[in-house]
């Protein structure tokens, strides 16, 4: 029927896929071909050291420029890509892109920025995930210690020996590991001991009201103290205001990430952004 409606084709089509399950079906099909159609792009969000206020690393964040719907949030399409399995080639592509970008920035600035890359649970469950990661590290020529793999708490709930072994293999090769969205999952502090992790990323939901909600502030400061005691790096996610930054810095939070410093950026904007962060330091010595 839609075929015969001429100009109304698109209208009919979009009304149809307004329906939740049709939308999901559309996404699944579109996702399968998105990589080969070059619809993905990796954005990079700066991570700053709160003491020096310099950019010390980036988080690679996937963007999908979908031809009909425009940009679709990774919060929507990543779970879909996991369900249908295409997260494996897509995740591998993101990792390679991010490593190539890291290498380019190192060559350009003579500084080894840390590149954080999100790994889905589906990827971690692959038996050869560690080899895949290390192959890309050596293929792109980056320093393994400049790669940080981000995993969410839900992934750590699977505390099988094979998962723990993968963590140890990554660490042995020099790659570091973050727990992402810390505090939102089924938090069991015991995995801080069981898994060889380097970094805790405090979820944005705690940082959001840190200046006005005394409970959120107490939880955040407790996580920072815990991380510092365990000699883990701690990163506050979603920092948007000067007041949040002030509280975090005052309480020895090492690093932060958020719109206050920078939104996730296309690779073409990285050079200028890094340089704009360097500027205040020059001013101080002038
Ligand atoms: P995440 O790993 O926790 O990434 C942080 C998210 O917070 C990003 O959303 C980022 O844009 C957003 N964010 C950063 N600072 C602020 C801020 O100050 N305010 C607000 N409101 N938001 C901020 P994004 O890029 O939409 O990604 C959402 C989630 O999708 C990520 O959460 C991650 O779980 C997943 N994701 C993104 N890229 C990848 C990927 O390449 N692989 C996998 N497996 N997951 C990915
Ligand atoms: Mg992340
Ligand atoms: Mg996060
Ligand atoms: Mg988050």
Automatic annotation (TrEMBL):
Q: Which positions fall inside the EAL domain?
A: 24-278
**Name of protein:** EAL domain-containing protein
Task: Name the source organism.
Answer: Methylophilus flavus
Upper lineage is:
Bacteria, Pseudomonadati, Pseudomonadota, Betaproteobacteria, Nitrosomonadales
Which part of the entire sequence is included in the shown chain? 410 to 695 of 695
């Amino acid at each position: 029927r839609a075929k015969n409606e001429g100009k109304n084709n698109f209208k009919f089509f979009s009304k149809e896929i307004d329906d939740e399950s049709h939308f999901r079906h559309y996404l699944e099909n579109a996702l399968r071909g998105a990589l080969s159609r070059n619809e993905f792009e990796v954005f990079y969000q700066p991570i700053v050291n709160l003491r020096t206020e310099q950019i010390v690393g980036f988080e690679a964040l996937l963007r999908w420029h979908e031809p009909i719907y425009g940009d679709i949030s990774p919060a929507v399409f990543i779970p879909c890509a996991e369900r249908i399995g295409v997260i494996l080639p897509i995740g591998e592509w993101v990792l390679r892109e991010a490593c190539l970008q890291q290498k380019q920035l190192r060559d350009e600035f003579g500084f080894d920025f840390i590149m954080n890359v999100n790994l889905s649970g589906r990827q971690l469950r692959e038996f050869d995930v560690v080899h895949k990661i290390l192959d890309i590290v050596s293929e792109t020529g980056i320093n393994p210690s400049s790669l940080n793999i981000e995993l969410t708490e839900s992934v750590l709930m699977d505390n099988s020996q094979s998962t723990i072994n993968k963590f140890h293999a990554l660490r042995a090769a020099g790659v570091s590991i973050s727990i992402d969205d810390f505090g939102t999952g089924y938090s069991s502090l015991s995995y801080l001991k069981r898994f060889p992790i380097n970094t805790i990323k405090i979820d944005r939901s705690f940082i959001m009201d840190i200046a006005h909600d005394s409970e959120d502030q107490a939880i955040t400061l407790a996580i920072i103290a815990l991380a510092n005691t365990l000699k883990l790096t701690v990163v506050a996610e979603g920092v948007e205001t000067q007041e949040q930054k002030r509280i975090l810095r005052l309480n020895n939070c090492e690093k932060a990430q958020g719109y206050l410093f920078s939104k996730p950026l296309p690779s073409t904007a990285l050079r200028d952004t890094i340089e704009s962060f360097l500027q205040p330091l020059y001013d101080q010595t002038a």
